[in-house]
Amino acid sequence: MSQHRIPRNRTYLMCPPEHYEVAYAINPWMDTATPVDAELAVKQWERLRETLTGLGHKVHVLAPEPHLPDMVYAANGAFTVDGVAYGARFKYAQRTAEAAAHRAFYEAGGWDFRAPTQTNEGEGDFAYLPRAHGGLILAGYGFRTEPAAHAEAQDVLGRPTVSLRLVDPRFYHLDTALAALDDGNVTYYPGAFSVASQRVLRQLFPHAVLADEADAYAFGLNLVSDGRNVVLNSEATGMARKVEAAGYTAVLVELSELKKGGGSVKCCVAELRP
Fold it and tell me: What is a GO molecular function of this protein (predicted)?
């Protein structure tokens, strides 16, 4: 079935985990008592980068900065649509300085960068589907990003924005509970969302691939897809079977060390939409 799914070349931003460690705990997955194999984290990250470039995608690399161990989760630094970059404003002080590093990257690259006034964590809580209902932003709130940022993103990016309430702290960012499989459809774990938000998702995406708790717990929703190839955490075997059954090609990558910080494939990858 996979031949019916058409991939589209993408451009991504990643940041190597040279300073990565779990030095604090700001989500339920982080445990400062659990050691991180820093060397293995770098190898796993590099394998993810090579997987994306091997699929024909371009990957820009953001230089990591000391004392910012979560910079590896590059998706959180901004959200881009049609050459406009809506910057991040992190909730927790430990990550605040990451925003400036991302801003410098976008400004140096000639992007129309818009500084936020509201707390938001970039593509961690925003997803864009250019062919869904004429171009639609899905926006999560409940743990990190403030609802007011959804209105700000809509104003800045000029796309209708649908707010979705996250209710399970294990799935603290939208990208741990929902992912775009292509330019018009998504996969998501219903249990991560409020009853009202589940209703909205059913209306918007009647053909969505539904994940279960085991898929979500294995970070199976924290994926990157080019419309055909779905790159996801190797632990998420059930999710891999679901996307294969829907006609996509699952590409498994081991990211055990990055999961210790509360992230997986998508957290490490921001999509750049020039």
Answer: dimethylargininase activity
Domain carrying residue 76: 2-272
Beta strands across the sheet bearing 249-253: 224-225, 229-233, 249-253
**pLDDT for the residue 4:** 81
- Joined tokens for residue 134: 């004429």
For residue 179, the surrounding DSSP H or E stretch is strand 178-180
d(CA 218, CA 216): 5
The band of 1, judged by pLDDT with boundaries at 50, 70 and 90, is: very low
Residues acting as catalytic residues: 173, 267
The enclosing H or E element of 80 equals strand 78-81
Average pLDDT over residues 25-32: 90
- At position 40, the amino acid (one-letter code) is L
Q: In the chain, how many H helices and how many E strands?
A: 7, 15
Domain with 194 in it: what CATH number?
A: 3.75.10.10
- β 161-165/136-141 pair status: parallel
Summarised one tens digit per residue, pLDDT across range 197-228 is 999 999 999 999 999 999 999 999 999 999 99
How far apart are the C-alpha atoms of 18 and 38, rounded to whole Å? Answer: 8
| Overall number of domains in the chain | 1
The four Cα atoms 135, 142, 224, 72 give a dihedral, to 10 degrees, of 130
